[in-house]
Description:
By secondary structure, the protein is α+β, with helices and mostly antiparallel strands. The protein has one domain (2-81): 2-Layer Sandwich (Histidine-containing Protein, Chain: A), CATH 3.30.1340. 42% of the residues lie in helices and 28% in strands. The chain is built from three helices and five strands. Strand 2 (23-26) and strand 3 form a beta hairpin. The chain is globular.
Amino acid sequence: MKIFNISDIEGFFDVVNSCKGKVELISEEGDRINLKSKLSQYFSMAKIFSDGMINELEIIAYEHEDVDKLIQYMVQGGEAKHS
């Protein structure tokens, strides 16, 4: 799933942290980073987050319920599309 234009970083991670299953960020190199880990969240965002907004992320959520939750978040505050 690709997610675009995240301006509410805290809200995004609140949703990620509320997910039941694993949620991973796919890096440009193809590495999978656990987004539910606080250390990974800080590391990932320090690398990506430069102008107050995340333009694009590719993430994988393994539970259908979590995918729905992430899509609902994006419908309310940004854009999401499955890839």
